[in-house]
Amino acid sequence: MRETWFFIDSDIQAPAFNMALDEALLNWHSQGLIPPVLRFYQWEPAGLSLGYFQKIKGKIRVDAVKKHGFGMVRRLTGGRAVLHDHELTYSVVVSEEHEKMPKTVTEAYRVISQGILEGYRNLGIQAEFAIPERKLGKNGSAVCFEEPSWYELVIEGKKAAGSAQTRQKGVILQHGSIPISMNTDVLFDLFEYSSEEVRKRAKEKFADRAITIEDALGRSVSIDEVKNAFYKGFELGLDIELKPYELTSEQLDEVHKLAESRYSSDAWTYKREKAEGVV
Q1: How many CB atoms lie within 10 A of CB 173?
Q2: Domain range holding 110?
Q3: Which of 125-134, 162-171, 241-250 has the lowest mean pLDDT?
Q4: Kindly report the CA angle at 209 between 203 and 215, in degrees rounded to 5?
Q5: Which of 77, 114, 139, 180 could form a disulfide with 166 if both were Cys (CB 3.0 to 4.6 A apart)?
Q6: CA neighbor of 110 nearest in space, from 128, 94, 87, 136
Q7: Catalytic (active-site) positions
């Protein structure tokens, strides 16, 4: 008999709410209030999420983020910046002690990302796990989708989905971006480069490194088609049964308070700069 996990489709929410809900789910699971959870969500306005340790100064063009009307929020998880726009975002919350969860971060990625792999297959896309041949991050780029990490998904050698993971209070939180389409002109406008020529070259190289669902299929897809494919993909990939769950009014109040006190605050967003006396 398959284990039952909660499934939450929180639909379209503000960037601060999205990050606050992921943290709240981690807290509730650590307290034994809820079982493991799979969550799907989207962003309005579109948001640039920063890795927990990522610096802003010299990396992110904050004025450009504001010019495009995007939000900017810092994640609990590490990694590089991700623009969440036309995509399906997922999060998984599960105990570190769960019988299916390996002790190492990379192997836990493999287990959880099996659900993403099956989701792509449900769309008719032949995705594979990335097994990097070299040390990542040598180019110092702030852009997440420039190169895959262990067990992230690639299609025809191009990065298709980006994920990040943290372990706190005995709980694994893994969340990630599954792009449906991507505007690379807008994306590269958000990052600092030494010159416009360097920006142009980086954007050209990016086309050979990243791919979206619509790129892979050669057609447009609806968000409902994508959600259905990955819902079934996670059930198959993790060998679970998903049970829809609606947050209570008390839980929603808690999330909104956390969104306001932490994820909407400059003290949190600019914490790396403040820690080093930059701002």
Answers
A1: 23
A2: 3-275
A3: 125-134
A4: 95
A5: 77
A6: 128
A7: 144
The pTM for the full model equals: 0.91
Amino acid at residue number 25 = L
Closest CA to 131 of 107, 112, 115: 107
Q: Is 120 exposed, middle or buried (0-12, 13-18, 19+ CB in 10 A)?
A: buried
CA distance 76 to 173: 9
> What is the CATH number for 88?
3.30.930.10
Segment 28-52 shows an average pLDDT of 98
pLDDT tier for residue 151 given thresholds of 50, 70 and 90: confident
Q: Secondary structure of the chain in the HEC alphabet?
A: CCEEEEEEEEEEECHHHHHHHHHHHHHHHHCCCCCCEEEEEEECCCEEEECCCCCCCCCECHHHHHHCCCEEEECCCCCCEEEECCEEEEEEEEECCCCCCCCCHHHHHHHHHHHHHHHHHHCCCCCEECCCCCCCCCCCCCEHHHCCCCCCEEECCEEEEEEEEEEECCEEEEEEEEECCCCHHHHHHCECCCCHHHHHHHHHHHCCCECCHHHHHCCCCCHHHHHHHHHHHHHHHHCEEEEECCCCHHHHHHHHHHHHHHHCCHHHHCHHHHHCCCC
Number of domains in the chain: 1
Bridge partners of residue 11, in order along the sequence: none
What are 190-231's pLDDT values in tens digits?
Answer: 999 999 999 999 999 998 899 999 999 999 999 999 999 999
Cβ 172 vs Cβ 93: under 8 Å: yes
Residue 263 to residue 234: CA distance in whole angstroms: 28
Structure tokens belonging to residue 177: 């971006």
